[in-house]
Specification:
With about 170 residues, the protein is an alpha+beta fold. The chain has a single domain, classed as Gcn5-related N-acetyltransferase (GNAT) (Aminopeptidase, 3-Layer(aba) Sandwich). The chain is about 25% helix and about 25% strand. It has helices spanning about 15-30, 45, 50, 100-115, 130-140, and strands at about 5-10, 60-65, 65-75, 85-90, 120-125, 140-145, 160-165. It has a seven-stranded mixed beta sheet. The longest helix is centred in the middle third of the chain and has 15 residues, at about 100-115. The protein is globular and about 40 Å long.
Length: about 170
Protein backbone atom coordinates (compact mmCIF):
# COMPACT_ATOMS: atom_id res chain seq x y z
CA UNK A 1 0.00 0.00 0.00
CA UNK A 2 1.26 3.49 -0.84
CA UNK A 3 0.74 4.77 2.70
CA UNK A 4 3.57 2.46 3.79
CA UNK A 5 5.87 3.69 1.00
CA UNK A 6 7.43 7.03 0.26
CA UNK A 7 6.30 8.66 -3.01
CA UNK A 8 8.47 11.32 -4.61
CA UNK A 9 7.55 13.17 -7.81
CA UNK A 10 10.28 15.09 -9.61
CA UNK A 11 11.33 16.25 -13.06
CA UNK A 12 12.93 13.71 -15.36
CA UNK A 13 16.72 13.52 -15.21
CA UNK A 14 18.87 12.03 -17.99
CA UNK A 15 19.75 8.86 -16.02
CA UNK A 16 16.00 8.14 -15.56
CA UNK A 17 15.32 7.64 -19.26
CA UNK A 18 16.26 3.95 -19.41
CA UNK A 19 13.87 3.03 -16.56
CA UNK A 20 11.05 5.12 -18.03
CA UNK A 21 11.47 3.54 -21.46
CA UNK A 22 11.21 0.11 -19.85
CA UNK A 23 7.91 1.09 -18.23
CA UNK A 24 6.54 2.58 -21.47
CA UNK A 25 7.56 -0.53 -23.44
CA UNK A 26 6.00 -2.92 -20.90
CA UNK A 27 2.72 -1.00 -20.71
CA UNK A 28 2.33 -0.67 -24.46
CA UNK A 29 2.91 -4.40 -24.85
CA UNK A 30 0.52 -5.18 -22.00
CA UNK A 31 -2.29 -3.33 -23.78
CA UNK A 32 -1.61 -4.90 -27.18
CA UNK A 33 -0.05 -1.95 -28.96
CA UNK A 34 2.65 -4.15 -30.52
CA UNK A 35 -0.01 -5.26 -33.02
CA UNK A 36 -1.10 -1.68 -33.83
CA UNK A 37 2.10 0.32 -34.24
CA UNK A 38 5.22 0.07 -36.37
CA UNK A 39 7.48 0.30 -33.29
CA UNK A 40 6.62 0.08 -29.58
CA UNK A 41 9.08 2.87 -28.79
CA UNK A 42 8.90 5.95 -31.01
CA UNK A 43 11.88 8.19 -31.84
CA UNK A 44 10.52 10.84 -29.44
CA UNK A 45 10.43 8.19 -26.70
CA UNK A 46 14.10 7.46 -27.22
CA UNK A 47 14.86 11.18 -26.92
CA UNK A 48 12.69 11.65 -23.86
CA UNK A 49 15.06 13.90 -21.96
CA UNK A 50 15.56 16.24 -24.93
CA UNK A 51 11.85 16.16 -25.82
CA UNK A 52 10.87 17.57 -22.43
CA UNK A 53 13.82 19.93 -22.11
CA UNK A 54 12.11 22.58 -24.21
CA UNK A 55 10.14 25.59 -23.02
CA UNK A 56 6.61 24.91 -21.70
CA UNK A 57 7.28 21.16 -21.40
CA UNK A 58 7.95 18.90 -18.44
CA UNK A 59 8.13 15.19 -17.72
CA UNK A 60 7.78 13.92 -14.18
CA UNK A 61 8.81 10.59 -12.73
CA UNK A 62 7.17 8.88 -9.79
CA UNK A 63 9.62 7.26 -7.41
CA UNK A 64 8.58 4.89 -4.65
CA UNK A 65 11.21 3.60 -2.27
CA UNK A 66 14.01 4.75 -4.62
CA UNK A 67 12.51 2.98 -7.69
CA UNK A 68 11.01 4.74 -10.69
CA UNK A 69 7.50 3.31 -11.01
CA UNK A 70 6.00 5.64 -13.60
CA UNK A 71 5.98 8.94 -15.35
CA UNK A 72 3.92 11.49 -17.24
CA UNK A 73 4.53 14.68 -19.13
CA UNK A 74 2.99 17.73 -20.73
CA UNK A 75 4.09 19.55 -23.84
CA UNK A 76 2.59 21.79 -26.50
CA UNK A 77 0.08 19.90 -28.64
CA UNK A 78 1.62 19.63 -32.14
CA UNK A 79 -0.51 21.38 -34.72
CA UNK A 80 -2.29 23.62 -32.19
CA UNK A 81 -2.21 27.36 -31.66
CA UNK A 82 -0.07 27.04 -28.52
CA UNK A 83 -2.93 27.34 -26.04
CA UNK A 84 -3.35 23.56 -25.76
CA UNK A 85 -0.90 21.14 -24.19
CA UNK A 86 -0.93 17.39 -24.49
CA UNK A 87 -0.69 14.98 -21.59
CA UNK A 88 1.87 12.47 -22.82
CA UNK A 89 3.47 9.17 -21.92
CA UNK A 90 1.55 8.62 -18.70
CA UNK A 91 2.46 5.07 -17.70
CA UNK A 92 2.85 3.15 -14.44
CA UNK A 93 4.34 -0.21 -13.64
CA UNK A 94 1.50 -2.70 -13.33
CA UNK A 95 2.22 -3.41 -9.65
CA UNK A 96 2.10 0.32 -8.84
CA UNK A 97 -1.42 0.96 -10.13
CA UNK A 98 -4.36 1.60 -7.83
CA UNK A 99 -2.22 3.31 -5.19
CA UNK A 100 -2.84 6.96 -6.09
CA UNK A 101 0.42 7.37 -8.00
CA UNK A 102 -1.30 8.02 -11.32
CA UNK A 103 -3.54 10.60 -9.68
CA UNK A 104 -0.49 12.36 -8.19
CA UNK A 105 1.31 12.36 -11.57
CA UNK A 106 -1.75 13.72 -13.35
CA UNK A 107 -2.16 16.50 -10.80
CA UNK A 108 1.55 17.39 -11.13
CA UNK A 109 1.21 17.59 -14.91
CA UNK A 110 -1.94 19.73 -14.75
CA UNK A 111 -0.27 22.12 -12.29
CA UNK A 112 2.69 22.46 -14.65
CA UNK A 113 0.36 23.03 -17.63
CA UNK A 114 -1.32 25.87 -15.74
CA UNK A 115 2.06 27.41 -14.83
CA UNK A 116 3.09 27.21 -18.48
CA UNK A 117 -0.02 29.22 -19.41
CA UNK A 118 -1.92 26.56 -21.34
CA UNK A 119 -5.71 26.99 -21.46
CA UNK A 120 -6.58 23.38 -22.27
CA UNK A 121 -5.03 19.95 -21.81
CA UNK A 122 -5.56 17.26 -24.44
CA UNK A 123 -5.00 13.53 -23.99
CA UNK A 124 -5.14 10.52 -26.26
CA UNK A 125 -5.34 6.87 -25.30
CA UNK A 126 -6.91 3.58 -26.34
CA UNK A 127 -10.25 2.19 -25.20
CA UNK A 128 -8.54 -0.79 -23.54
CA UNK A 129 -7.00 1.58 -20.98
CA UNK A 130 -10.27 1.92 -19.07
CA UNK A 131 -8.59 2.78 -15.78
CA UNK A 132 -6.74 5.67 -17.43
CA UNK A 133 -9.97 6.91 -19.02
CA UNK A 134 -11.70 6.80 -15.63
CA UNK A 135 -8.82 8.70 -14.03
CA UNK A 136 -8.93 11.41 -16.69
CA UNK A 137 -12.70 11.75 -16.46
CA UNK A 138 -12.55 11.96 -12.64
CA UNK A 139 -10.34 15.04 -13.13
CA UNK A 140 -12.84 16.69 -15.48
CA UNK A 141 -11.58 15.56 -18.88
CA UNK A 142 -14.40 15.05 -21.36
CA UNK A 143 -14.27 12.73 -24.35
CA UNK A 144 -14.11 14.15 -27.86
CA UNK A 145 -15.48 12.69 -31.08
CA UNK A 146 -12.22 13.11 -33.00
CA UNK A 147 -8.54 13.86 -32.37
CA UNK A 148 -7.03 17.33 -32.12
CA UNK A 149 -3.69 18.54 -33.40
CA UNK A 150 -1.22 16.37 -35.26
CA UNK A 151 0.18 13.85 -32.79
CA UNK A 152 0.72 11.14 -35.41
CA UNK A 153 -0.84 8.52 -33.13
CA UNK A 154 -3.40 6.92 -35.42
CA UNK A 155 -3.61 3.88 -33.14
CA UNK A 156 -5.33 5.89 -30.39
CA UNK A 157 -9.12 5.77 -30.41
CA UNK A 158 -10.04 7.89 -27.38
CA UNK A 159 -9.46 11.64 -27.27
CA UNK A 160 -10.08 13.88 -24.27
CA UNK A 161 -9.90 17.56 -23.37
CA UNK A 162 -9.83 19.51 -20.12
CA UNK A 163 -10.21 23.25 -19.65
CA UNK A 164 -7.52 24.60 -17.35
CA UNK A 165 -8.29 27.27 -14.80
CA UNK A 166 -5.40 29.66 -14.43
CA UNK A 167 -3.25 29.20 -11.35
CA UNK A 168 -1.99 32.04 -9.21
CA UNK A 169 1.31 31.88 -11.08
CA UNK A 170 1.32 32.93 -14.74
CA UNK A 171 4.92 31.94 -15.41
CA UNK A 172 5.67 30.30 -18.74
CA UNK A 173 8.47 28.14 -17.43
CA UNK A 174 9.68 26.15 -14.48
Amino acid sequence: MLSEKRLNLRRLEAPDVHAVLGIIDACRREYGLADRVQAILEPSDRHLYETYGVRRSAYFVAIVDDEIVGGAGVSRLPGSDGSICELQRMYLRQRSRGEGIGRALLQQCLQAARRFGYRQCYAETIGEMGTALSLYESHGFRQLEAPLGSTGHGHNNRWLILGLQPSGTRSLGI
